[in-house]
Amino acid sequence: MHRTPGSPLRLVVIGNGMVGHRLLTSLAEAGATRSLQITVVAAEPRPAYDRVALSSWFGGRSAEELSLVEHGFFADHGIEVLLGDPVLTIDRVDQTVATTSGRTLPYDELVLATGSRPFIPPVAGHDGPGCFAYRTIGDLEAIAAAAARPTVTRGVVVGGGLLGLEAANALLQLGLETHVVEFAPRLMPVQLDEGGSAALLRHIEQLGVRVHTSCATEAIESDGSQPTRLCFDGRDPLEIDLVVFSAGIRPEDALARAAGLDIGERGGVVVDARMRTSDPAISAVGECAVVGGRHFGLVAPGYQMADVAAVHLAATAFGAPVPRDRFVGGDLSTKLKLLGVEVANVGSVHDAEGCTSLVWDDPVGGTYQRLDVDDDGRVRAAVLVGDASAFGPILDRFRTGDAVATPGDLLKRAALADPSAPPDPSVGICSCENVNRGAVCGAIADGCDTLPSLKKTTRAGTGCGGCVPLLEELLRTESTGGRRGLCEHFELSRAELYDLIRVRRHTSFAQVIDRYGTAPGGCEVCKPTVASILASLDNGYILDGEQGALQDSNDHFLANIQKDGTYSVVPRVPGGEITPEGLITIGEVARDFDLYTKITGGQRIDLFGARVEQLPLIWRRLVDAGFESGHAYGKSLRTVKSCVGTNWCRYGVQDSTAMAILLEERYRGLRSPHKIKMAVSGCARECAEAQSKDVGVIATEKGWNLWVGGNGGMRPRHAELLAEDLDDASLISAIDRFLEYYVRCADRLQRTASWIDGLDGGIGHVRDVVIGDCLGLGAELEAAMAAHVDAYECEWAATLDRPDRLARFVTFVNAPDEPDPTVVFVRERRQIRPARPDELVGATR
Amino acid sequence: MTLLEADRATWLAVCAADDLITGRGVAALVAGRAVAVFLLDDGEVCAVDNVDPCSGASVLSRGIVGATVVDGSPVRYVASPLRKQRFDLETGRCLDADEVIDLWPARVVDGVVEVSLEPSRRGNGPETIP
Ligand code: SRM
Ligand SMILES: Cc1cc2nc3c(=O)[nH]c(=O)nc-3n(C[C@H](O)[C@H](O)[C@H](O)COP(=O)(O)OP(=O)(O)OC[C@H]3O[C@@H](n4cnc5c(N)ncnc54)[C@H](O)[C@@H]3O)c2cc1C
Ligand code: SF4
Ligand code: FES
Q1: Mind listing the pLDDT tens digit for each residue in A224-235?
Q2: In which domain, by residue range, is B80 found?
Q3: Final residue before a domain boundary, out of A551, A573, A593
């Protein structure tokens, strides 16, 4: 049954629930369904539907309306689906699965997506007629049919947790007298604290639900056709006609157990962060899986698992290298409307130890709100009952780890954004669909001004719905304009503009100011900023057409303006390594044009005193000798300083010079919020001073340590260690991600040092994004860098080749041969320098 | 500037209108003086001294043209590329320092940019080089 070489990879997916289906749509989006032969085996008689919204079936939503499967999806992607045919066994040796109907399906890759099964307490009579679970549309159909019997007027839900209360609501809707019995002394003991449970209890009792807490069910008595009494330990029995169990869930791991896969302590199939079980040909996703000892009973982490598994399966199908995508976990925050009462929890109040609790308890209005913040003002947990409108802003802070100056305002539903903290476009808004703030804001700016259109465009809010308040808040704040503007023409920050330009693919300043600014206008702040963003995204020549008018003088002439209006020229010397011929060429050019020559602090050579009209002539000579622009003028990569490393130094442990050259040639020309400096040292002696650079690389016995956020200059800052012992490839992908993330999020003229200092979570956040890929941006950031690397061309050479581009390089349009009369040099130490005013009389031009 | 003065002005052709980029300038040599000529986004051309009095360098033509509001009225200016002081293109006044530069009447005739040989207003800029 093993795969014949050359035939498509056979993938079998067991379970077509919410997560199993997400796996299929992710594979389809990755274009992998064509390279796979997929069979899905489902126990339920219908394909995937929205289990989260299950209760709305009682409110009139049909099974079709709950379906998650787009019309024609399976056929379009060549997926075979076996409905109502549960898998019975897995044969790991033959790599086959056997279904109940007797089919045997061979697989090369198998995915378990079997979800959970309801936990039914083993009390006497639990399996009698009239006793139901609450998990599938089938369960609901059975409950509705039973409730329709004239002899059934009273129902009870066993379990006062989240799902139990949903079930109670269903019984109310079916017109039954409704009871809830809970073993614990209060409702929703997992999510809520005592105050929250008490507030919830008041609401629920007002609705007519009778709640019995501290009740241990012992037996269910029956008359043979339906239950009659629920009996407890030491309490009067309860007269009822129908029982719904909602006493928790257990991972559906029976197949995995029988197949001998590793099983978690409390059940569930053990998987690694790539979703692999103990058998490398088998993965597991969703509620049946246990990752890092945890079982996730919510859909958002399940979707994340499905996406990770899909990426790995797609790579296997394409024969691509193993992707770096990993499951990074999720939090268990939820917001629900239970029996019309809003209930939400963020984090867990049970483990918010050492926190300060702010509590707002209003028994009259029926609201209970508790917010736990730690000593640094960070949100650690919250419980909201009766009014959960603060859920979005609180969850936002909880996820970003932003400190909150006045936490009370959060409960008072104050502004979404702390005016002092720039909203980070990469902050996740919708964890189910993994949509970040930038994408939401982009869609809003794009004209999505209603919740439905925003959901349709971004997919945010289409999962658990928990982020909907946040979306609504953004709709309110973003449609009316932002707060900390770039300049008087833009109310948006650089990072926000960057995201909009990226998402909406704007290509000109005119479009951008028309759309988001006050036109006509622009100024010396917003024009170069937008020009830089356009350059970061487009990677093309920066001086053609309108962009030429936007650049700062330095970029405008691809050289650095000096105090007297002349320019300096800095050829790139990657890693500081230069041949004798190269040195001679630079020397000859400097001599022939009479330029002041200096070795810079960045391991290269600066030639000063060139007039505008001389620049192309100087470049021609340099370019012909193999030099290129060193971008000394750009907000872009400057130098990658190196030491001599293993080739010469007796201490060196890696070839630091080669790595420096590789990095310099990779990142040259990348337009960024500010200049970027790097260095590579060959050992811990650190001769290249890497720990004072934006990106510093230090060789170790095993590879490279990566430091980021260093700065010399005005406010020196020591770099921080981002990752250790990386091999060459992971070093480069980490730097790719770091730089692109910085380019995306930083403010105008913000070096990496102050950017990281200003980030909530600082280096930890950077590490989560770059190394942990917690925002799932890794691949996107690397792709952006790859586009830059591919498109790079030397700006000097690109100018020299084109007469239209050269036209600007004259001092006077109407007298091209006339030098600037105000430029006057004197000689000092056998080289030129600008004349001082007192030297002007008698000085030479 | 009164109409009378303008009519008497003698004009010097400096470049083709097509040579200019909106929002950017070029320098021209006019009566021995360096003059910065700009094309504004409403299609108008204007000219001012090229020398930035704050630095003494002949660089204003290489600055960025910007727009702002001063005392409720819109102002268009050029920001010096050296230290970013802004000069009002209509009055020659520096918005950030106590300096004034000369204005030079400019116009486009048959696709050719012309600058008057006489500045229309005397700032405290440098004397004409004889
Ligand atoms: C030429 C050089 C000094 C020298 O003679 O050695 C130099 C010259 C200038 N530096 Fe520098 N810096 C030079 C190395 C440095 C270094 C040392 C280094 O890179 O190893 C530093 C401190 C390290 C750092 O940046 O973290 C340095 C910190 C600055 C700063 C302050 C940056 C900061 O974050 O605080 C500025 C101002 C700015 O960028 O806003 C600056 C800006 C400048 C500018 C661009 C100022 C300007 O806008 O006109 C100078 C013009 C250079 C030109 O015309 O070519 N230069 N500058 C060095 C060129 C290195 C190169 O080959 O590219
Ligand atoms: C009433 C209710 C309300 C909920 N509300 C929320 C909420 O507000 N927010 C939230 O995040 N989550 C909520 N959940 C949980 C959410 O529905 C689950 O997290 C999600 O459905 C898990 O997806 P899954 O694919 O792992 O499992 P499931 O959706 O359960 O799918 C598993 C599928 O596998 C099938 N299967 C099992 N064994 C086999 C076999 N041997 N062969 C073939 N098929 C098999 C099952 O029949 C099932 O269809 C709710 C759940 C319920 C029941
Ligand atoms: S950093 Fe280490 S390898 Fe490099 S030159 Fe210094 S001592 Fe030698
Ligand atoms: S967070 Fe679940 S739908 Fe957005």
Answers
A1: 899 999 998 888
A2: 3-115
A3: A551
pLDDT recorded at residue A417: 38
- Which chain A residues touch B22 with a CB distance below 8 Å? 546, 549
Closest C-alpha to ligand 3, atom 4: A682
Cβ atoms A304, A19 nearer than 8 A: no
Residues A2-36: pLDDT tens digits? 556 667 899 999 999 999 999 999 999 888 998 89
Chain A residues within an 8 Å CB radius of B34: 812, 820-822
A159: Cβ contacts below 8 Å, ≥ 6 apart:
A167, A180, A181, A182, A183, A245, A246, A247, A248
Query: What's the pLDDT tens digit per position in A616-672?
Result: 999 999 999 999 999 999 999 999 999 999 999 999 999 999 999 999 999 999 999
Cα–Cα separations (whole angstroms), residue A625 to A585, A589, A620, A756, A842 = 7, 11, 9, 40, 38
CA atoms of A59 and A621, how far apart (whole Å)? 79
**Interface contact B45, partner A, CB < 8 A:** no
> A77-81, A273-277, A735-739, B20-24: which range is least confident on average?
B20-24
Q: How many angstroms separate the CA atoms of A466 and A462, rounded?
A: 9
Gyration radius of chain B's alpha carbons: 14
Q: What percent of chain A has pLDDT over 70?
A: 95
- Among protein residues, the one with the nearest Cα to ligand 2's atom 5 is A52
- Write out residues with Cβ below 6 Å of ligand 4: A 300, 430-433, 460-467
**Residues in chain A closer than 8 A to B37 (CB atoms):** 813
A489 neighbourhood in chain B, CB within 8 Å:
67
Task: Map tokens 């691509």 to a residue.
Answer: A320
Whether the pLDDT of residue A567 is over 90: the answer is: yes
Q: Which of A600, A615, A664 to mutate to test the pocket of ligand 1 (most atoms within 8 A of CB)?
A: A600
Q: Tens of pLDDT along A723-749?
A: 999 999 999 999 999 999 999 999 888
Q: Does residue A340 or residue A249 have the better pLDDT?
A: A249
**A604 shares a domain with A666:** yes
B70: confidence class by pLDDT, cuts 50, 70, 90: confident
Q: Kindly state whether residues A54 and A101 are assigned to the same domain.
A: yes
Q: Which residue has the higher pLDDT, A759 or A155?
A: A155
3-state secondary structure of A698: strand
Instruction: Kindly state the tokens that stand for A94.
Output: 């033959």
> For position A391, what pLDDT does the model report?
82
Task: State the Cα–Cα distance between residues A200 and A339, nearest whole angstrom.
Answer: 10
Angle at A76 between CA A71 and CA A82, to 5 degrees: 80
The continuous run of DSSP H or E covering A360 comes out as strand A356-362
Is residue B66 in a domain? yes
Which CATH number characterizes residue B107's domain? Answer: 2.102.10.10
Q: Which domain holds residue A715?
A: 560-791
From the CB of A683, is ligand 3 less than 6 Å away? yes
Asked whether the beta carbons of residue B57 and residue A546 sit closer than 8 angstroms, the reply is: no
Q: A814, A820, A845: which to substitute to probe chain B, counting the most B Cβ within 10 Å?
A: A814
Residue identifier of the C-alpha nearest atom 2 of ligand 1: A600
> CB of A688 closer than 6 A to ligand 1?
no
Query: How many structural domains are present in chain A?
Result: 4
Q: Measure the CA angle with vertex A61, ends A56 and A65; round to 5°.
A: 120
Contacts of A564 in chain B (CB under 8 A): 56-57
**Together in a domain, A529 and A585:** no
Mean pLDDT (chain A, rounded): 89
Residues of A with CB under 8 A from a CB of B: 488-489, 520-524, 527-528, 546, 548-550, 552-554, 556-557, 561, 563-565, 807-808, 810-815, 818, 820-823, 837
Instruction: List the single residue in A with minimal CA-CA distance to B23.
Output: A549
**What pLDDT does A693 receive?**
98
- Shortest distance between the Cα of A506 and any Cα of chain B, in A, equals 19
pLDDT of residue A804: 86
Q: What is the ipTM of this complex?
A: 0.70
